[in-house]
Write a structure and sequence with these properties.
Layout (H helix, E strand, L loop, with lengths): L1 H15 L10 E3 L3 H4 L5 H8 L5 E3 L1 H15 L1 H26 L26 H9 L1 H25 L2
Parallel strand pairs: 1-2
Protein name: DUF4371 domain-containing protein
InterPro entries: AtLOH3-like (IPR055298)
């Protein structure tokens, strides 16, 4: 069993720090299949060793729940979360549009910063995206402003064509 070797590795790490599973009050895991198994996963082996061990599925999900709770109590945090969510959605759509257009690509070209699609990752993985958004925030605002101006201009052109 792969989980048995994970169990042994966990016990070895704890022993290195003069701990046993019974000394540990909790372990976190990210929901990987080899961790989840009730009948053959690492979770089962650790629970057999220590009944006091508890598991938190997707620790970052717990952080998200805390963020949601805080955002309900603090309007500014809620607005920030909503704004960031909207920005990520717009940027994801822009990326999809750019993917449809053939662009010159290669090593080192426009690759310093990246955004992660929300559906592709756990919430904790968005730390990099948030950092990148902060780094290029002024440019993002400029692009969004240009999109608004161009959309208004396009609507005016469409309206004039109908008359």
């Amino acid at each position: 069993y792969y989980c048995l070797s994970l169990r042994e590795a966990t016990i070895d790490v704890l022993a290195h720090h003069s701990l046993t599973l019974s000394n540990v009050c909790g372990q976190c895991y990210d929901g990987a299949r080899n961790m989840q198994g009730e009948l053959g996963g690492l979770k089962m082996f650790i629970r057999q060793e220590s009944r006091s061990a508890h598991f938190v599925h997707y620790f970052t999900h717990q952080l998200q729940l805390i963020l949601v709770m805080v955002s309900k109590k603090c309007v500014q945090v809620g607005e920030l979360v909503l704004s960031i969510s909207n920005i990520l959605n717009v940027l994801e759509y822009l990326q999809e549009a750019l993917d449809m257009v053939e662009l010159e690509t290669g090593r080192g070209l426009n690759q310093e910063l990246g955004l992660i699609k929300t559906g592709d990752t756990h919430w904790g993985s968005h730390y990099k995206s948030f950092g990148n958004i902060i780094s290029i925030f002024d440019s993002i605002v400029d692009v969004l402003d240009a999109l608004v101006v161009n959309a208004r201009r396009w609507k005016l052109e469409q309206a004039h064509r109908h008359f």
